[in-house]
Write a structure and sequence with these properties.
The chain is α/β, with parallel strands linked by helices. Helix 4 runs parallel beside helix 6 and helix 9 packs parallel to helix 10. It is elongated and about 70 Å long. It comes from Halodesulfovibrio aestuarii.
Amino acid sequence: MFKKILFATSASPACDNAAKVSFDLAQKNNAKLYALHVLGVPSRGFSTTVTDLRTGEEETVDADYRDWVMEELTTTYATQLTEYKDTALELAVGVPATEILRFARKEGVDLIVMGANTRDDDPESARSRSIVGRTMEKVARLAKCPVLIVNRPCTTCWKLFSNIVYCTDFSPAADNAFEFAHATAKEIGAKLNIFHAFDITSSKMGLFPSQNDIERQLELAQKKIDERYVSKLKDYDNYDVEIWEGTPYVEILKFAREKQADLIIMAHHTAEVPAEDAELGSTVEQVVVRSACPVASVSRA
């Protein structure tokens, strides 16, 4: 399914979980794997001196420094590199998100894998502040391909995804994510769980929905799912549909846990705005930082 996979890494322990999934997926798909590390941002203009993103120290990007970093990457992923040979280690200089997107575009990768954050001591660490890092947010927002975010140790998806949860709010972006979910489930023979959580926490003019309103919305959601998604699954019958009510990210996480999901697929934003202008939706962000399994953020079909 994937021919070229880009693993964006700082080679720190924060990327270990994403590394395991990256090498696994590449091996499973017999794909070319690029492990890209961005050395840092030039100190000034076109200076050859960069601020190392891990240490915060200034380093001169010469042949010796590149060789040293490449050796460190090779050592960090020595076991995986031995097990999967079709891997290329790559270095870049610049703003991490920009360089990751630039590399993905240049090589035409069809999947980017990264952690919710790349540094253990990042003040915006997902675990310390329950928000995703700026690099991940920008890559997910602007990438032309799906972005798989791995925030915790992945034990259920080893070698293969078998139980996929696709979440929809019926936005155009969610429809794009469905195309990816459908194609992925069909390709690998996984069960596809189509899920919608009706948000009962939002109110209009201070009025919360009554039980009759909730039941009416659930019936409407079922009709939308039948028309927009089930009607496109004539070639695939290994799916299920469920609709719950509550706080969307809470219900998604509960549903994924109940189904023992090994992959959650969502649109990276929900509002009907161009992907370039959209922020990472709060529901997606909360699912990313709390999910026990990887989350695929899809901005385009």
